[in-house]
Amino acid sequence: CRLDTPPVSSTSVFVHILYYRLQALKSAFEKKYGDSPQFYACAPGRVNLIGEHIDYCGYSVLPMAIEQNILAAVSVNKSGSIKLANINPLYKDYSVSCSEDIAIDRDNPKWYYYFLCGVKGIQENFGITNLVGMSCVVDGTVPPSSGLSSSSALVCCAGLVTMEANQKSLSKVALAEICAKCERYIGTEGGGMDQSISFLAECGKAKLIEFNPLCATDVKLPAGAVFVISNCCVEMNKAASSHFNIRVVECRIAAKMLAQARGLDCSRLVKLAQVQGELEASLDEMEALVEEVLHPEPYNREEICKALGITTAQFCSELLSSNTQHVTHFRLYQRAKHVYSEARRVLRFKHVCDSEPADALKLLGDLMNQSHSSCRDLYECSCPELDQLVELCLKSGAVGSRLTGAGWGGCAVSMVPVEKVDVFLKAVREGYYLNDPRRAAMEKQSLFVTNRRRGCHFY
Ligand code: ADP
Ligand code: NG1
C-alpha cells in the first residue's frame, strides 16, 4: 500500500480500505499537530482457531492474524512529551512527560494506558532514560473487548513505534516477548499468544505458537473451508474485571497441587505445562493425574494452604493477583482438565492440517466443537449469548464453531465449507443480528469472513 498514489482498481479491498484509512489518519494528524506524520505503524488483531486459555499455562496455541488492526501515525517531537490522540472520539487525548516515570493505573484501564504499556516495555528493555517526544494518532478497527485482541494490537503498535522513534531495533520474536510481558502492566496476566501472532503472522498462514522458547510454525489450513467470525455483541473488558485473572490463579494453584501430590518442588512450579515437563508424562497421563489427585468440588483457601503447607498470607501474596484477593473458592479440577485436554486438541488440530486426511474438515470441526464444550462447561468462560450464537452457527452449516479469545462475551469462530458460506452468513445474519436492533446496528463489523493477514509493520 503506497500512500502517494491511490491503489489501482484491481488491488484487494483490504488495500483500498487501508489506503483511505491512512489518508484519513494523515489528515487527522495534520489537523491535530500542524505537521505531517514521519511514519506509520500497523499491528493486526487475531483470531485463535484453537487452544484457549492455555498459553499462560505454557501450552501451544493456533491463531492467525486478521485484517482488522491498529494503525498509528507518528512524528518525533521536541516537546519532551508523548502526545496521544485517537480517531475515535470516545478515546480521549492524553499527554505524558518523557521525564516522568510512566505510571499505569490498573484500576482505571483507559486506552492510553495500553499504549503506555508498549512504551514502557521498550523503555525498560533498552534502559532508555530519555525517551524522545512523540506525537501520535491512533486508529483501530479491531472490535474492542471481543476476543480479537484489540488491546494487544494496541500494545504491539505502541511498542513498535517507540522502538522506531528511539532509533532502536529488535527482532520480531524479541518484540513479541517484550510486548507480552509489558501488557501485564495493565493487570491481566496473559500468556503471550496475541502479541506473538501480531508480530510473527505471515500472509495466508495460521501459526502454531509455542512458548519457552517462543517459536511460530506455519499451519496450512484446509482449502475447502473458510473461518468466519461472529461477535455475540457482549463486551468483556479483561483489565476491568477479575474473570481472566481468576482463571490464571486457578491454573497456578492447580499446578502446585499436582506438583505437591507427586512430590515435586512445588515452590518452583507455577504452570501446568511445567508439571507435565517435570513428570515427563503425556497429556493423557496428566489428565489421569487430575482425576486421581483433584476433586470436582471447589477448593477453599484453607484446604489449599494445608495441602501446600503455606500460610494464608503466603497464599495471598504468592498465588493471588491484586484483583483476585477477594476470591474464596477455586475450581482446580475443572480448570486443569480443560487445560490438558485443550493442549491435546491443539496438537491434533495441527496434525490433521499437516496430514490432510480425506475427512479433515470433520476432524477439525469436531476438535473445535469439543474445545467450545470444554470452555463452556469446564473453564466456564462462555456466556449464554455466545453459546446461542455457536449453536446457531452449527445449525447454519458450520462444521465446527467455538468461542475465541478470552470469552465471557465476544466472538465465535466457525469453520464453514466454502460452498456453504453464503447460506451460512444469511442464516446467522437473520437468526442472530437482524431480530435485535442493537445487534443489527453492529452487524457489519460483527459478522465477517476472515482473511489471513501479515503481522506488524511500518509504512
Ligand atoms: P480485547 O479482547 O479486544 O483485547 P480488552 O478488554 O483486553 O479486549 O481490551 C480492550 C481495550 O483496548 C479497550 O477498552 C481500549 O481501552 C483498548 N482499545 C481497543 N481498541 C482500541 C482503539 N482502536 N483505540 C484505542 N484503544 C483501544
Ligand atoms: P483476548 O482474547 O485478547 O482477551 C486473552 C489473553 C491471551 C489468551 C486468551 C485466551 C491477554 C493480553 N490475552 O486474549 O493471552 O490467554 O485470552 O486464550 O491477556
TrEMBL record:
| GHMP kinase N-terminal domain mapped to chain residues | 115-200
**Where is the Galactokinase N-terminal domain positioned along the sequence?**
28-75
* Biological process (GO), any one: galactose metabolic process
Q: Can you cite an annotated GO cellular component?
A: cytosol
Q: Which UniProt key words apply to this protein?
A: ATP-binding, Kinase, Nucleotide-binding, Transferase
- Recorded superkingdom: Eukaryota
Q: Name one GO molecular function term.
A: galactokinase activity
Q: Name one Pfam family in it.
A: GHMP_kinases_N
**What NCBIfam families is this protein classified in?**
gal_kin
What this protein is called in its record is Galactokinase 2
| Species of the source | Neogobius melanostomus
Taxonomic lineage per UniProt? Eukaryota, Metazoa, Chordata, Craniata, Vertebrata
